[in-house]
Amino acid sequence: MKTLLVLGCGNRLGEPAEGWQVINHDRTHHRAEVNYVADLDVRPWPWADNSADAIVARAVFEHLHIGLEESMAECWRILKPGGILTGTMPLWNTEKAHGDPTHRRCITTLTMGYFDPSTKEGAAALIYEWHPWELLSQSLVGKKDSVRFKLRPRKD
Amino acid sequence: MDTLVLGCGEKPMADAVNHDRIKHRPEVDIAHDLDIFPWPWPDNSFDLIVACAVLEHLRCTLIESMAECWRILRPGGQIHVKIPYWNHANSYADPTHYWRFDISTLEFFDPDTKLGRQYGFYADQRPWRIIKAPVLNPGRSSIIALLEVRK
Questions:
Q1: Fewer C-beta within 10 Å: chain B N or C terminus?
Q2: Residues A125, A129: Cα–Cα separation, whole Å
Q3: Residue A82 and residue A57: Cα distance in Å, rounded?
Q4: Smallest Cα–Cα separation from A36: which of A3, A66, A72?
Q5: Does residue B54 contact residue B7 with C-beta atoms inside 8 Å?
Q6: Radius of gyration of chain B (CA)
Q7: What residues of chain A score a pLDDT lower than 50?
Q8: In Å, how far are A8, A57, A108, B36, B56 from B80, measured between CA atoms?
Q9: Is A108 in Cβ contact with B95 (below 8 Å)?
């Protein structure tokens, strides 16, 4: 059985698939399908090391008080080797990024490169709490106001 | 003249105390997390602080970090500061940037400016004087300025 962890699922639940267990996490139990409640600003997050095959974080990290490098460190820890993180965050120069009063940060289409040592940004990164990732993609989506990213932890 | 380089990164200076969050190269003289107060220097320790591309990496506000700089500078001491400009992608690309600023931001610290008079209560116990007015760098990604403590 593989595990899909949907962080801050809101109303976009993980789609059940054959052989997959879906954890629909959110900060409150705002609908019946939410089957894991936790505050992601409290570290460590309540999932074990190497316990998820995939993590989905759509429009989540920008709402947290903890830093992006800290959220990425938690995802790195929880994903199994070969696991995949996908998600979105708001693009910096958009109304969407700054309009929501619960948004604490926004990014560009370079930001996720800081976590991959094989990119220009990652090679120069001086990040205090940093684990290496392989950046698979980062690009604009939606009305070109969100950055979608896909990464795999380097756990060799 | 005693100089402190905060968050020296890959640009440590000769004849200065080079600080960074971790001792990642031998030139780093002292490692400290600047979000932990007080910073590890006594009052009135330095004549010059160089803070280029460092204060935006802290969780604490610019009011708080500038207050610590004020404390450890001697009377007449100056700070050379470089901070990211709000309207440039570079200011948002780095995942460890917590702040971006406007050209007007540093005026809040100088009671001789309009904003400093209006909002000086933010920094009223730690006033500064703007020596070189804040300007954008040629790439328009950062603000550079020189300020002097009023003690």
A1: N
A2: 11
A3: 17
A4: A3
A5: yes
A6: 15
A7: none
A8: 42, 40, 28, 22, 14
A9: no
**B92 interfacial to chain A (CB closer than 8 Å):** yes
* pTM for this model (two decimals): 0.91
Separation in Å, CA of A99 to nearest CA in chain B:
15
- Residue B106, SS3? helix
Helix (H) or strand (E) segment spanning residue B77: strand B73-84
Which residue type, as a one-letter code, is found at position A55? Answer: I
Q: What is the pLDDT of residues B15-71, one digit of tens each?
A: 999 999 999 999 999 999 999 999 999 999 999 999 999 999 999 999 999 999 999
Backbone angles phi, psi at A83, to 5 degrees: -70, 170
Strand-pair partners of B136: B143
Calpha distance A138→A109 (Å, rounded): 6
Three-class SS of chain A? CEEEEECCCCCCCCCCCCCEEEEEEECCCCCCCCCEECCCCCCCCCCCCCCEEEEEEECCHHHCCCCHHHHHHHHHHHEEEEEEEEEEEEECCCHHHHHCCCCCCCECCCHHHHHCCCCHHHHHCCCCCCCCEEEEEEEEECCCCEEEEEEEECCC
User: In chain A, pLDDT over 90 holds for what percent of residues?
Assistant: 92
Structure tokens at A29: 């139990």
- Structure-token match 């795999």, residue found: A152
Name the residue of chain B whose CA is nearest to A127's CA. Answer: B96
Contacts of B9 (CB under 8 A, 6+ apart): A126, B20, B53, B54
Q: Give the residue from B92, B97, B98, B100 with the most A CB atoms within 10 Å of its CB, the best one to mutate.
A: B92
What is the value of ipTM here, to two decimals? 0.87
Between B24, B87, B95, which is nearest A111 by CB?
A: B95
